[in-house]
């Protein structure tokens, strides 16, 4: 079945003792917003997973980007604390923008190899519109025994980027075009893009309501990528996961991710940057 599920499907699954629902709401401008929203009202049975605390490692000035990947053992331990096993059916949702939820999808499905990871289409917005049933109760589950099937080939590091581009690889920037061109930079200390990169924004993968485009529209968006070796990056390794998910929904193999992305690239003054087209 599709990894995007609707509200009716999630309602059917809510009696499954192996179901784990994760609320991934977050804001780059207000890191505590998602947790406050969860505490106020969430899908019954859901647990909160924090982008900054659970899905990112420590930020080291001058070395890492804004959301470095966490230590894999610590991540697996956290998932076990949340009740995840290899048998679990895991459903993820955010506010409906599908901006943050792909990061956890990428980590669980592509990096850690969990086989049953799904995303609620339209997130909390769809749930409220079609169900309305919410809870403020903090869900607790027995510890799980999840064992990852690690796949390090789904990512690439900064040191490998120049050779990748030189050898003809396709490096894509998921940020907005004006950030790619270096005209604005609302989050990082330097503006521009990695030399050799092309701009294909993650925003193109969703419609005006924030729902992922249909498969045929996504195939059209990514039509030039077939058969190519693709790496995606963004500002900090979050929104690029939305683009990679879009590729999967289009029926294409997923691009590799440069997790550190632009915010890590610019920590080393010897790395070149480019502006404009």
UniProtKB/TrEMBL annotation:
- So which domain of life are we looking at? Bacteria
- Cite the Gene3D superfamilies for this sequence: Rhodanese-like domain (3.40.250.10)
Query: What SMART domains would the database entry show?
Result: RHOD
Cite the CDD domains for this sequence: TST_Repeat_1, TST_Repeat_2
Please give the InterPro entries that the UniProt record associates with this protein. Rhodanese-like_dom (IPR001763), Rhodanese-like_dom_sf (IPR036873), Thiosulphate_STrfase_CS (IPR001307), TST/MPST-like (IPR045078)
The family database entries (Pfam families) matched by this protein are listed as: Rhodanese
State if Lipid metabolism is listed as a keyword.
no
Could you give a GO molecular-function term held by this entry? thiosulfate-cyanide sulfurtransferase activity
Question: Which UniProt keywords are present, listed alphabetically?
Answer: Pyruvate, Repeat, Transferase
Domain Rhodanese, first and last residues per copy: 15-136, 165-274
Question: PANTHER family attached here?
Answer: SULFURTRANSFERASE, THIOSULFATE SULFERTANSFERASE
Put simply, this protein is called: Sulfurtransferase
Query: Which gene is the coding source of this polypeptide chain?
Result: sseA
């Amino acid at each position: 079945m599709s990894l995007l599920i609707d509200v009716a499907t999630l309602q059917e699954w809510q009696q499954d003792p192996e179901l784990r629902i994760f609320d991934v709401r977050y804001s780059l401008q207000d890191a505590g917003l998602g947790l406050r929203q969860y505490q106020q009202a969430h899908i019954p049975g859901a647990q909160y997973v924090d982008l900054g605390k659970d899905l990112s490692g420590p930020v080291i000035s001058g070395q890492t980007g804004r959301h470095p990947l966490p230590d894999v053992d610590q991540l697996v331990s956290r998932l076990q604390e949340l009740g995840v096993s290899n048998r679990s059916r895991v459903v993820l949702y955010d506010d409906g923008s599908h901006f943050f939820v792909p990061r956890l999808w990428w980590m669980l499905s592509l990096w850690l190899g969990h086989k049953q990871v799904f995303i609620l289409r339209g997130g909390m917005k769809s749930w409220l519109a079609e169900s309305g049933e919410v809870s403020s109760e903090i869900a607790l589950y027995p510890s799980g025994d999840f064992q990852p099937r690690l796949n390090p080939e789904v990512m690439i590091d900064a040191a490998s980027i120049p050779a990748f581009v030189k050898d003809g690889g396709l490096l894509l920037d998921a940020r907005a075009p004006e950030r790619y061109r270096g005209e604005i930079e609302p989050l990082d200390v330097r503006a521009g893009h990695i030399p050799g990169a092309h701009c294909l924004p993650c925003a193109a993968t969703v419609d005006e309501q924030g729902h992922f485009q249909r498969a045929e529209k996504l195939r059209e968006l990514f039509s030039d990528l077939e058969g190519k070796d693709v790496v995606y990056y963004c500002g900090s390794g979050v929104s690029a996961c939305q683009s990679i998910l879009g590729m999967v929904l289009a029926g294409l193999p997923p691009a590799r991710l440069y997790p550190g992305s632009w915010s890590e690239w610019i920590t080393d003054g010897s790395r070149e940057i480019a502006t404009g087209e």
